[in-house]
Amino acid sequence: MSRADDASAGVSLWKGEKVHVSPLSGGLTNENYLVETNGARYVMRIPGQSTELLAIDRANEVHNTVAAATTGIGPKVLEYVRQGDVMVLEFIDGPTMSAQALHSKEMATRMADSFRRLHAAPRFLRDFNMFRLIKKYLEIVAAHKVTIPADYRERLPLVREIERAVGRASLPSMPCHNDLLCENFIDDGAALRIVDYELSGNNDPCFDLGNTAQEAEFDDDLRATLCEAYFGRLDERQLARMNLFALMSDVGWTLWGAIQAKISAIDYDFTGYYTARWQRALEVMESDRLKRWMSEARA
User: Fold this and answer.
1) How much helix, strand and coil, in percent to the nearest 5, is found in the chain?
2) CA-closest candidate to residue 234, choices 296, 167, 298
3) pLDDT tens per residue, the chain (299 residues)?
4) How many contiguous H segments (helices) and E segments (strands) does the chain have?
5) Domains defined for the chain, CATH in brackets
6) 0.90 exceeded by pTM
């Protein structure tokens, strides 16, 4: 809390006012706090330790969060303090989502609506490509002697095949979130708002659809519902690309979790996190589903 108090003291928005600062749970990269003053509530975000090793660009994050807010889906940025990269955000009043809360066709349809709005935002500052990020993470892994699954590199030729398959029917890049944990959705009663734009960037919109389907553990029916609601029809080829990007979420975030296990000061089982991610990815890689998705994506 001393770090939070120091950060709070540098915010001009409530300078001279009596504030109450309390931690918000759920963050795996940063420290998030609820700040209350004069009957108003704000969210204050402080970067976690060594997050530059996770390929997080704070200038990109701030720019993209401001852009996302213009759609009504992202939270408003009320102040940014360069010293310490402290961001003060609009507090969104409503329940934070979970996989269980999102498991319905109604919620999948609402998620698709939020994505259409977000993807229509002003252009984000930088691009995002999971295949390039994996390459960068592997360089960080080598430089910092990070432990990763022993068979990870053996699967890289298959990853390159997947990249070629999703590239066959790629969509124009749009502003995408790229890190759609269920907890990054907040239901304000009118829309599913989306927070935390650390890894945001212009990307193929199917990555957002596949990534969120994986994080929410959607079955085939809910994935089809999400696809149909987003595109206006059930596009089997784009559904296959969604499913391939869902797999790539596990492949990429396996390395993210391994790096976090090495550098993070947050009390969380990152080793268990990346091990489970990799096991889930292996199950798909060794299944007939992967062959079918790749065939449909190439069709």
Assistant:
1) 50, 15, 35
2) 296
3) 688 999 999 999 999 999 999 998 766 677 899 999 999 999 999 987 666 667 678 899 999 999 999 999 999 999 999 998 999 999 999 999 999 999 999 999 999 999 999 999 999 999 999 999 999 999 999 999 999 999 999 999 999 999 999 999 999 999 999 999 999 999 999 999 999 999 999 999 999 999 999 999 999 999 999 999 999 999 999 999 999 999 999 999 999 999 999 988 778 899 999 999 999 999 999 999 999 999 999 98
4) 11, 9
5) 2-90 (3.30.200.20), 99-298 (3.90.1200.10)
6) yes
